Each structure stands twice: as structure tokens, then as C-alpha cells.
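User: Design a sequence. Structure:
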């Protein structure tokens, strides 16, 4: 979009019809953006806690307080007592500088919201393909002849994606959707595989078994470009299609039909989102998706590849910039001494911490047992977003010092010792990287509200007070540093990414045109080959029981975003969905004597919340669904973790529903 500005205020938007990815189309959140940007509740001044209240203070006092609080904890408890959460709503330059601040202070404990949504993509696709990112791009989706969407309701969660999927369908593509729920995405499907929750790996392995047994594999691709196929054959030997049908709840004939369509299509796209990643086996789920694509040779060509769909506007960029416990910028492993030596030279630093540091979920545990004493959170709202948020609240309460840098007084900010008002996206320069690896520069359009400051200024000023020279004071200068230190961004100068559409990484030098499709000739592992994965399904951490007979799953709805701290302040969006609800199947509702629009209690072993009942066939008997944009949902979600990616199992919690009379 373009912003229409009058007297330093954004008063309108104009659709950027010439933009290649969206063609001027926006989702409801994009269309309501001015209601958020210009909202009267924007944070305008630094504030510090005084008892139960906050008082306005000067920036000088706020910056001194931030620096002294961090320094005190380093002095008393060591640098590893500090934790940093970097925002995927901020631009690349702020994220790069924030992780740099953490590591220059000696703390490896830096992480971002990808831990709660797509950390399995980073480590799972990274293990199989060598790169944890979308292999193709949105525009290329129209070249697909088969779209297999598993664990994603993209018409709601990623509406712009649905435009390109619909174009593919209009061109004759077959759309297959695997989802326990009936959704607006399943409405557009030619086949809806209504799987049992948590049976994704069973379905994927069953499809692979059909493809192998019927000789539909791409032998040439497998022999020349992959390793591990023999182990996969052993892995699949125990499977029967009848057993797969039993495990998934999908008739055998439908599994066979879907497998044949996917394998035989000249170009098949596999799309997934948090329905795949938010499980204790999320990393294995991702590996299975990539492996299905590999054995069919559906990779490295127009319309053929794997499309993991990120949720926040810069979660891809944040990971690229090193905002993760496992990685320095450019996915240099934090556990590799060579990474440390590289950045010691790049940053002129005497010492840097070897990682990996603590992930965001591990920081919660570390705060509870006293190992983390201070947290600096930018644009993150764990009191709404974390699983089992009562534990998160207890962790934040136990801290010696909590800094929150935000644009609104969120539930997390209300727990802070120091609140720093940040500039929003339209109020600062910087680059962002979308889920299709597209890097684009946006210029400041309006000044920050009140005394709010851009994140770079805040981070640099705190750094100065801690005797750190972070260098690169402006976004343009930080981007130049990124060009030098992140190989994928080597040729992404401000001038080049300021042009409409920007560039997709990898773009190693200024002569490089950017990369539309990854893995055309080789994969990103040193030997150039992909690692076919052999996985088996693991049951959810929680099983239903007589006391908790229903399975709770959570997800997005089209008009709200993440914690809702922005979208629940939009009158236009609230008019559509203004309260927490729970979808329940009519069969279960009848047994529980719950009726449409009743207020009910939803209970798990972690606590309870109230929601309005929506009695609907969208969910299977024995399953309920709640959107996660309201605080009540994550009071009751499961905080069991994937052992590799450390992501909570938001999609599977045993619950019960009680009518409230």
C-alpha cells in the first residue's frame, strides 16, 4: 500500500496495484491499518513502575534506568542472566541491532516469536534441504498443477496466498486440503482429507507408501540429488494403507487418490503452516512434508516446492538476522566457534558468547528457577501468546527487571518495570523480509507519535550507556553492515530493495538478480544433496480422558492478528469478531446441553476460561477449536515442547466444556 499523508498524519491508503505479490489486494488487517496506527492508546512517553501504577519519565531517565538495570544483573548474576526477545514486527535493522546488543553484552539468550510458530521450519527444513525457508514464492504458486495444503487454513491466515492458489485452480490445478476442520480453505478444495488431529505424519507416510509401492517416485531426482532413500524404504515397510486409514480417519481410497494426484502432477506445491509446526513432533512433521516433496521430485522447479507460511510481517527477516538462540546472523550456528570468530572480527568485539542460548520457552523456565533475572522484550506479548500463560506470568513476576518496548500498553507491558514507547512501521525507515524471502525497504512516512522513538535509536542509546559501540546509527547504515555480514543479503542495497517488489534472497552481490526458486540445481548442504528424513509419528503429550474428553486446538481467524494487541483496537475488525468463542460439534453440544451462543467454561489441567459457544459441524465430534487472539485461550493450552525446536504443542490439549446454566 501507499500511505496518504497530510500535515504529518496518515489519513488514507492507496492500493499498490503494481506490486507483484499482492497486486494491490490487502487482507482485512491491512485495510484497517490506519485505525491502529492513529489509535489514541498508542504509547507516547517512557514510563516506569511506581507500585501498581506507571509514571511518565524523560527519555534520559528511561535510558539510564534500562542500562543500569541490565548492568546490575550482569554484575550480580553474570551476562547469561539476561534474556532478549526480538520482535518479528520490527524491521531487519532493529532486529539485527538487538541481537547484536545481546551478544556484545555476553548473553546468548536471544530469541523471537518464531519459537512459537515456525521454529520447526527453520530447523526441520534446514536439516532436510539445508535452508529453512520457502523454496518458491507466492507468484509461482499459479504455476502449480496440484496444491496440497496440510495444517493450514490459508484463506483466513494468509489471504493473499489464497489469491495465487485460486489462480492456480482457475488454471486447472487440483487442490487437496488435509485439515480436521471444515474451513474456508477446505471449501475451495477438490479433496478435503478430514484427518484426525495429530495424524499428519501418519497421512504423509501413508501417501509416501502409496507413491513408493506404485512406482511413482522420481528415481533420477532421488539418485542424483538426495541421500537417505534406503532408510526411508525401511521406515515405510511397516505401513499398510489400511492402518493409515485407521490412524488418520481418512478412507484408504482417498489417501491413494491424493498420493497419486500429488506424485503424478507436473508441478506440485506443498503448503503448510502452524497446523504442522505446533506439535511436540513439529520438526518431524516439517521433515515429512519436505521428504514427500523430494521423493516425487517436486522441488526446484516452477510450481513445485514447499511453501511454509509465516504469520508475522518480519518473522523470516528476524530469523535471518540472528534473532534466534541457535543462530548468529545468516544462520551461522551459534554453537560453532567459527561463527563467534567471524562476528568478533565483524563487530570488533573482544569476546562473544558461544551458543546456543536459551529459547523463549526455555527462558520462562529459567526465570522461574532463578537463572534468568532480567528480560528486554521488544514487540512481544508472551502474557497473551505463550502456552500456559499462568506459568509465563509467574516467570515475569519473578524477574528482577523487565523492559518492554512497545506501541501499546499490552498485557505484558503492564507487568514491566520500564515501558519504552516505540515508533510503528510507518514512522521509521527500514527493510522487511516476507515469508517468500522478499526483502523490501520502506521509508518513514510520518513522525512517531508523542515522544516515541524508533527502535534503532533506543537500542543504540542503551548500548552507549553500557559502553558498547554498536556502530551503524541509522537503518541505512545497519543495512550496509548486514550486506557485509549476512551472505544471503550481500547484494540487497537500499537502492535495489527500494524498488517496488524488492529482491528475494539469496542475493550475494549487487549484480545478482535475487533468487525466485531455491534448490534448482543443488541443495544448501555442503555436498549439494538433500537429506531424506525417516520419521514416525509421536502421540500428543496430552491424551483425552473421562475427565477431559475433548481435544482442543487453536488457530487464527481472518480479522485478527497474533495477540490482538493491535487488531482488537480496530473498531472495524472488532465489529466482525469481538469476543472469544469456542467451536463445538453439535453431537458434543447435545450431550453437554450446550446451545448456540451459550457462555461456557473450557477447562484443562492448567486452568479455565470462558467463551461463547458456536455449535457447528466445522469441527469433528470430540474436537473443539478456539482462536488464539484473546488472552483466555492460552491460559489453557499445552506447554509441552517439541524436543528439537522447543515449540509448544498449541494444537493438542485435552479439555472439557461445562455449561454455565
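Assistant: Done.
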Amino acid at each position: 500500500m501507499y500511505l496518504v499523508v497530510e500535515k504529518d498524519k496518515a489519513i488514507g491508503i492507496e492500493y499498490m496495484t503494481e506490486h507483484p505479490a499482492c497486486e494491490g489486494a490487502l487482507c482485512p488487517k491491512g485495510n484497517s491499518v490506519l485505525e491502529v496506527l492513529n489509535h489514541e492508546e498508542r504509547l507516547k512517553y517512557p514510563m516506569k513502575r511506581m507500585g501498581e501504577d506507571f509514571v511518565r519519565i524523560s527519555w534520559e531517565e528511561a535510558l539510564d534506568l534500562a542500562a543500569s538495570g541490565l548492568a546490575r544483573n550482569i554484575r550480580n548474576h553474570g551476562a547469561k542472566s539476561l534474556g532478549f526477545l526480538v520482535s518479528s514486527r520490527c524491521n531487519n535493522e532493529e532486529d539485527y541491532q538487538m541481537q547484536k546488543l545481546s551478544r556484545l553484552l555476553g548473553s546468548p539468550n536471544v530469541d523471537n516469536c518464531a519459537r512459537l510458530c515456525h521454529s520447526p521450519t527453520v530447523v526441520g527444513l534446514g536439516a532436510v534441504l539445508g535452508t529453512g525457508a520457502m523454496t518458491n514464492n507466492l507468484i509461482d504458486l499459479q504455476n502449480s498443477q496440484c496444491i496440497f495444503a496440510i495444517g493450514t487454513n490459508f484463506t483466513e491466515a494468509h489471504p493473499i496466498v489464497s489469491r495465487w492458489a485460486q489462480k492456480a485452480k482457475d488454471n486447472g490445478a487440483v487442490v487437496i486440503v488435509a485439515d480436521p476442520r471444515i474451513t474456508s480453505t477446505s471449501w475451495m478444495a477438490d479433496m478435503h482429507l478430514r484427518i484426525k488431529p495429530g495424524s499428519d505424519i501418519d497421512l504423509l507416510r501413508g501417501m509416501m507408501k502409496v507413491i513408493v509401492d506404485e512406482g511413482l517416485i522420481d528415481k533420477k531426482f532421488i539418485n542424483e540429488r538426495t541421500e537417505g532413500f534406503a532408510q526411508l524404504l525401511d521406515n515405510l515397510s511397516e505401513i499398510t494403507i489400511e492402518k493409515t486409514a485407521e490412524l488418520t480417519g481418512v478412507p484408504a481410497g482417498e489417501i491413494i487418490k491424493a498420493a497419486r494426484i500429488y506424485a503424478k502432477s507436473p508441478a506440485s506445491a506443498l503448503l503448510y503452516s502452524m497446523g504442522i509446526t505446533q506439535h511436540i513432533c513439529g520438526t518431524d512433521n516439517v521433515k515429512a512434508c519436505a521428504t514427500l516433496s523430494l521423493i516425487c521430485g517436486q522441488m526446484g522447479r516452477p510450481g513445485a516446492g514447499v511453501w511454509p507460511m509465516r504469520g508475522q510481517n518480519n518473522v523470516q527477516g528476524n530469523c535471518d538476522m540472528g534473532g534466534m538462540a541457535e543462530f548468529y546472523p545468516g544462520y551461522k550456528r551459534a554453537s560453532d566457534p567459527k561463527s563467534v570468530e567471524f562476528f568478533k572480527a565483524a563487530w570488533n568485539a573482544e569476546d562473544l558468547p558461544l551458543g546456543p542460548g536459551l529459547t523463549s520457552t526455555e527462558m520462562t523456565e529459567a526465570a522461574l528457577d532463578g537463572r534468568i533475572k532480567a528480560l528486554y522484550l521488544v514487540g512481544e506479548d508472551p502474557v497473551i501468546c505463550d502456552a500456559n500463560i499462568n506459568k509465563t506470568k509467574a516467570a515475569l513476576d519473578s524477574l528482577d527487571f523487565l523492559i518492554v518496548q512497545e506501541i501499546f500498553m499490552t498485557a505484558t507491558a503492564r507487568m514491566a518495570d520500564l515501558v519504552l514507547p516505540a515508533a510503528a512501521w510507518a514512522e521509521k525507515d527500514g527493510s522487511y523480509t516476507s515469508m517468500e524471502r522478499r526483502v523490501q525497504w520502506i521509508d518513514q512516512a510520518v513522525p512517531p507519535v508523542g515522544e516515541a522513538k524508533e527502535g534503532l535509536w533506543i537500542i543504540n542509546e542503551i548500548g552507549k550507556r553500557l559502553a558498547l559501540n554498536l556502530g551503524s546509527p541509522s537503518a541505512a547504515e545497519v543495512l550496509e553492515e548486514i550486506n557485509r555480514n549476512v551472505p544471503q543479503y550481500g547484494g540487497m542495497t537500499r537502492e535495489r530493495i527500494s524498488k517496488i517488489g524488492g529482491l528475494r534472497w539469496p542475493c550475494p552481490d549487487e549484480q545478482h538478480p535475487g533468487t525466485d526458486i531455491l534448490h534448482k540445481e543443488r541443495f544448501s548442504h555442503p555436498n549439494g544433496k538433500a537429506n531424506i528424513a525417516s520419521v514416525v509419528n509421536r502421540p500428543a503429550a496430552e491424551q483425552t480422558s473421562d475427565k477431559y474428553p475433548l481435544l482442543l486446538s487453536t488457530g487464527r481467524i481472518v480479522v485478527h492478528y497474533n495477540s490482538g494487541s493491535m487488531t482488537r483496537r480496530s473498531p472495524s475488525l472488532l465489529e466482525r469478531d469481538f469476543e472469544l468463542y469456542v467451536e463445538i460439534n453439535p453431537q458434543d453440544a447435545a450431550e453437554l446441553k450446550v446451545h448456540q451462543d451459550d457462555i461456557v467454561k473450557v477447562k484443562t489441567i492448567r486452568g479455565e476460561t470462558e467463551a461463547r459457544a458456536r455449535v457447528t459441524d466445522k469441527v469433528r465430534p470430540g474436537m473443539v477449536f478456539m482462536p488464539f487472539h484473546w488472552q483466555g485461550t492460552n491460559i489453557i493450552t499445552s506447554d509441552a515442547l517439541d524436543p528439537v525446536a522447543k515449540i509448544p504443542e498449541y494444537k493438542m490439549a485435552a479439555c472439557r466444556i461445562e455449561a454455565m446454566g
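The longest strand covers residues 607-615. The radius of gyration is 24 Å.
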